[in-house]
Amino acid sequence: MPRFAQAPLADMLLARRWCRVVSVVAAVHVALSAAGLPSVPCPAARLGFRCPGCGLTRGVFALCRGDLGDMLAWHALAPLAVTAALLVSVAAFAPLPVRDRLAAAVRTLEHRTGIAVAASALVVLYWAARLASGHGHAGPA
C-alpha cells in the first residue's frame, strides 16, 4: 500500500504534449543563454523579487563544466533541475512504451517516498534561506 497518495511528477510525465512544450522551451532558453543572447525574462524579476529559480541556468552551466563552486554560488539545486529536465525530455520524445515504464517507475518512487513533496519543500526552503540571508540574488561573490 502506498504511503503517499499523490504522484504529480508521474502524472506530468504522462502528459506528452506538456513535456514536449517544456522541453522545447527549455532547449531554446538554454541555447540562447549559452550563446549569450537574451532569453525568456523572469516574470518574478520583472515584478521586483527573486524567484526560486534565480540563477538556475547559470548553475546548470557551471555543473556541466564541472565547476561545483560556481554551481553552488549560482544555484545549489541545479542537479535537481537537470534530473527533472532529463525525465521530462525522455517522457516527451521516447517511444510510448519507454515513457510509460518511466512514468510507472517514477509513480512507484513517489508513492513509496513522497519525493515530489520533499523536492517541492526543498525548493521553497532553499529560496527562503537565500532571501533571508540577503543572497536573494544569485551568483558568485
Describe this structure in words.
This protein has 141 residues and is mainly alpha-helical. Helices cover 70% and strands 0% of the residues. The chain is built from 8 helices and no strands. The longest helix is centred in the first third of the chain and has 19 residues, at 16-34. The model has no long low-confidence stretch (mean pLDDT 89).
SSE inventory with pairings:
Elements: H1 8-13, H2 16-34, H3 43-46, H4 56-65, H5 68-74, H6 78-93, H7 96-113, H8 115-132
Helix pairs in contact: 2-6, 4-5, 4-6, 6-7
Summarize the structure.
The chain has helices at residues 8-13, 16-34, 43-46, 56-65, 68-74, 78-93, 96-113, 115-132. The protein has 141 residues and is mostly helical. It has one domain (8-132).
Query: How many beta-strand segments?
Result: 0
Summed over residues and divided by their number, the pLDDT gives a mean of 89
Write down the domain tally.
Answer: 1
Number of alpha- plus pi-helical segments:
8
Q: What general outline do the C-alpha atoms trace?
A: globular
Radius of gyration: 16 Å
Q: Structural class, from secondary structure content?
A: mainly alpha
Distance between the termini: 48 Å
Low-confidence stretches: none
The percent range for helix content is 55-70%
Biggest beta sheet attributes: none
Strand content: under 5%
Topology as a string of helices (H) and strands (E): HHHHHHHH
Which keywords apply here?
globular, 141 residues
